[in-house]
Recover the amino acids of this structure.
């Protein structure tokens, strides 16, 4: 296991990643978006309130919005870092040489994934000082903060795995990028769209059958795997109870989210590891 | 050391390899000749465990490329015909990375890297970024990379392609050195004299099949006759042409007007060719150059495959 995690591919990837200007410009873009948002938020709430105070409830609101924004940035950046990891090596004609070494497919894939995850974690850590402004004003517990970061980690590992799987399956980076961003659009928006469609159908059904209680597991599933919905329900118990009441299911949505994204990660990595090299025994 | 058994590879309806059978002994430098699309790179890719055969198998040092690919990777060093490098790595970091990929401990790598760089004459480029090296240097670096885990077998796909004459000579010298180290080398090239100088045996592949295999002399013997010779004279071009016309083995004489350059086809043996040159000098012709044109792949390929077709 140690050999799979601390492998030469990971060390090389980290070295190459931190030698390129692209990484620093990516970090700069990420922090710029956060700075613009936080300063804008503070300006609006202190200037227009006429009091000059910043209430804990407003601080919590800022935390909530930053959390959703940060999840959006993670979903935006993760495909950019992982969707080209294998296909770029293929295009640069370095992959074949790597595949003739004694590194296992698992070592290569995990090395690629961890280098991208490490960079995304660096981005999240680099954004911490901006996050800490929230703590100046109170209203947010450290536990909420830790929970949020845990779900960022789960999400970025899952997206990273999807990106690497698509990168392994496709020959060209551009195709891989489009497919990975397409998956992100599905997880971030289409799932929400499906939820609202399901909800409308459910409400229509209840209107026709007034004595029945709402029960719609599929609609709940679509909402549960949406990263934005997860963040909002983690932060606001009111929204969470509204969601569970709308579908008639009280099972915690974070458990569904966790199971779904862990399964996606495992499935994507398994496919990527199996498809990286020519399968000598089954191709016969 | 290398045994290929009935190896077939299909891409859809196209058969890139069609029941290829071949054996290469230990310590042998084997030259693989074939036109583009003949199946050389496909065969090399299967031996390098990059491609799965449709049927058949190949064994390297007794290990099956199909059943034991990971074991095969330990004993081969593979250099593809086209390869890239990591832009942001320095030469020693490049070798260090691949050394680590083969599980060589860091302490050993630190000793090995300078030795390998010296072997390929790149010691002075140790701290240069790899993408700044010339193509010839990159080829040599790639060869050093192949050697980092001390493999028994080297699979070199067109190692001298795209190199200038000087770089080709350097590459040839390194391969000779590796041959002296006892490595079994499988090499493909388009230039016959290049292979002839380096290889103990040559195999000609066409349409995925091995047409002929044997030592260099045997293959060259098949090519006797129809040697293209160029003669350069200071003056008396017409007298030289007349002299050549008298020789029964000379045909197709062509004169490059104003250059003093005469080309012709010679069908005699090497000894008879030597006699022709001796007689020309004795006759007082002002010859300052007498060259046999290099037989490239086209000539070898045409000569051998023509023979195969008529059988």
């Amino acid at each position: 296991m140690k050999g799979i995690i601390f492998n030469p591919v990971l060390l090389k990837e980290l070295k190459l990643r931190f030698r390129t200007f692209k990484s620093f410009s990516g970090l700069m873009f990420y922090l710029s978006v956060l700075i613009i948002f936080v300063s804008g938020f503070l300006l609006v709430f202190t200037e227009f309130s006429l009091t000059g105070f910043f209430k804990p409830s407003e601080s919590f609101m800022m935390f909530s919005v930053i959390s959703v924004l940060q999840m959006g940035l993670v979903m935006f950046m993760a495909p950019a870092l992982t969707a080209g990891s294998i296909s770029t090596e293929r295009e640069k004609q370095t992959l074949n040489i790597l595949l003739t070494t004694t590194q296992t497919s698992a070592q290569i894939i995990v090395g690629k994934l961890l280098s991208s995850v490490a960079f995304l974690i660096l981005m999240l850590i680099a954004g911490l000082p901006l996050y800490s402004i929230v703590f100046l004003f109170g209203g947010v517990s450290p536990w909420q903060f830790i929970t949020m970061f845990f779900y960022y980690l789960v999400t970025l590992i899952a997206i990273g795995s999807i990106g690497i799987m698509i990168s392994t399956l496709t020959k060209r980076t551009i195709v891989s990028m489009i497919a990975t961003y397409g998956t992100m659009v599905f997880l971030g928006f289409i799932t929400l769209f499906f939820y609202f469609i399901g909800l409308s159908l459910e409400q229509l059904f209840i209107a026709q059958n007034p004595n029945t209680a709402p029960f719609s597991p599929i609609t709940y599933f679509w909402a549960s795997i949406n990263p934005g919905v997860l963040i909002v329900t983690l932060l606001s118990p009111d929204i969470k109870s509204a969601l569970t009441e709308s579908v008639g299911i009280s099972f915690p949505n974070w458990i569904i989210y966790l199971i779904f994204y862990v399964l996606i990660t495992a499935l994507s990595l398994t496919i990527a590891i199996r498809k990286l090299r020519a399968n000598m025994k089954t191709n016969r | 050391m290398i045994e290929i058994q009935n190896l077939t590879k299909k891409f859809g309806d196209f058969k890139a390899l069609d029941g290829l059978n071949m054996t290469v002994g230990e310590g042998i430098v084997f030259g693989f000749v074939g036109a583009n699309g003949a199946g050389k790179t496909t065969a090399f890719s299967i031996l390098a465990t990059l491609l799965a055969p449709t049927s058949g198998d190949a064994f390297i040092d007794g290990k099956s490329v199909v059943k034991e690919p990971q074991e095969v990777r330990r004993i081969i060093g593979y250099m593809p015909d086209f390869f890239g490098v990591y832009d942001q790595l320095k030469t020693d970091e490049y070798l260090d990375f691949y050394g680590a990929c083969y599980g060589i401990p860091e302490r050993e790598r630190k000793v090995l890297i300078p030795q390998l760089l010296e072997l390929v004459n790149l010691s002075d480029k140790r701290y240069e970024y790899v993408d700044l090296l010339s193509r010839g240097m990159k080829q040599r670096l790639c060869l050093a990379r192949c050697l980092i885990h001390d493999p028994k077998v080297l699979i070199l796909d067109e190692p001298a392609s795209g190199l200038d004459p000087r770089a080709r000579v350097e590459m040839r010298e390194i391969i000779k050195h590796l041959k002296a180290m006892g490595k079994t080398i499988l090499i493909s090239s388009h230039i016959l004299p290049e292979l002839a100088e380096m290889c103990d045996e040559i195999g000609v592949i066409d349409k995925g099949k091995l047409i002929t295999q044997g030592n260099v002399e045997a293959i060259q013997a098949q090519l006797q006759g129809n040697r293209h010779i160029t003669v350069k004279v200071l003056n008396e071009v017409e007298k030289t042409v007349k002299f050549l016309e008298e020789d029964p083995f000379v045909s197709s004489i062509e004169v490059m007007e104003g250059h003093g350059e005469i080309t012709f086809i010679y069908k005699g043996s090497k000894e008879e060719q030597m006699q022709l040159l001796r007689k020309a000098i004795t006759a007082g012709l002002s010859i300052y150059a007498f060259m046999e044109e290099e037989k490239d792949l086209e000539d070898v390929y045409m000569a051998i495959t023509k023979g195969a077709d008529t059988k």
